[in-house]
Amino acid sequence: MGQFAGLLLDSIVSGVLVGGFYAAMAVGISIAFGMLGISNIAHPALILLGSFIAYVLNSQFGWDPILVGVLATVPFYFLGTLLYSAYEIAFERRGTQLIRGLAFFFGLLFITEVGLQLVFGVDYRLVETPYIGPSYNIGPVSLPVRMLIPFLASVLLLIGLQVFFMRTFTGRAIMAVAQDKFALQLMGAAPVRVKRIAFGLSTATAAMAGAFLIILQPVEPSMGRDYIGRIFAICVLGGIGSLPGTFVAAVIVGVAESITATFYGPSWSPAIAFGFLLIALVVRPAGLFGRA
């Protein structure tokens, strides 16, 4: 019984830490899909791009991946604004964003993936930092530093974004743009400009999530596809466009996956996110923090 309790507690703690990382991956989708109505399924590929940038600067110059992730948010932000400008001109103005816009991001997903494969091959790549190996042991619970640091950084990222959305004019405009464009224009804000900024922020978070990912595990160019369904499920489960909901849902999924992997095997873990999604759609279609 004591061994079971120890395994359960350890798996819960591990799941919470992994859930923080899932939240960092999903927050960009929560902004793009939840607030702007843009199904950016290429987001996981951009996360992998961030991982490989962290890998190059770590392996060549010894830079810390977290530092690389922070610095890379700037070029990723401008990349996002360029992608949205192309998307808006090609699809939103013509009212064809639902299907053709989705195909646009499918294409971006595969172009990014193939580009990474051409440059780095299909081998797994990893980074070296002093905190990847050590762990803190608190009783039966082990806290790997390589999981603890991305968790804390993810929490800070979500708190910073939530404060920005709630306390600044631009942030409130982003939250309003999907609800009432006319009212937003009366506030003196241009909807296209607001959405361009929001999509830039969404893409910038991919740089941070990519740094977290390569700290947690080795990466290869095609593994981003493994996360597409999971992060969309987290966004829907937490409530479309809700950052606190995204975090809570990510932790729930992380804990559930960790417990399942510990007691039933890792092969069952991928089904957990979709199981929670189906339950949420039946019980509370708006999600945990969504408006009913």
TrEMBL record:
- Biological-process GO terms, alphabetical: amino acid transport
Q: Which domain of life is it from?
A: Bacteria
Q: How does it sit in the membrane?
A: Multi-pass membrane protein
Gene Ontology cellular component list: plasma membrane
CDD domains this protein is in? Answer: TM_PBP1_LivH_like (cd06582)
Extract the GO molecular function terms from the UniProt entry.
transmembrane transporter activity
> Where is the protein found, in the record's own terms?
Cell membrane
User: Keywords, A to Z?
Assistant: Amino-acid transport, Cell membrane, Membrane, Transmembrane, Transmembrane helix, Transport
What residue range is the signal peptide?
none
UniProt keyword annotation of Membrane present: yes
| Main location as per UniProt | membrane
Q: Which residues cross the membrane?
A: 12-34, 41-60, 66-86, 98-120, 147-165, 197-219, 231-256, 268-287
Which Pfam families does this entry report, sorted A to Z?
A: BPD_transp_2 (PF02653)
Q: Name the family.
A: Belongs to the binding-protein-dependent transport system permease family. LivHM subfamily.
Q: Which PANTHER family match?
A: AMINO ACID ABC TRANSPORTER PERMEASE PROTEIN, BRANCHED-CHAIN AMINO ACID TRANSPORT SYSTEM PERMEASE PROTEIN LIVH
Q: What is this protein called?
A: Branched-chain amino acid ABC transporter permease
Organism whose genome encodes this protein: Bradyrhizobium centrolobii
User: What lineage, starting at the top, does this entry show?
Assistant: Bacteria, Pseudomonadati, Pseudomonadota, Alphaproteobacteria, Hyphomicrobiales
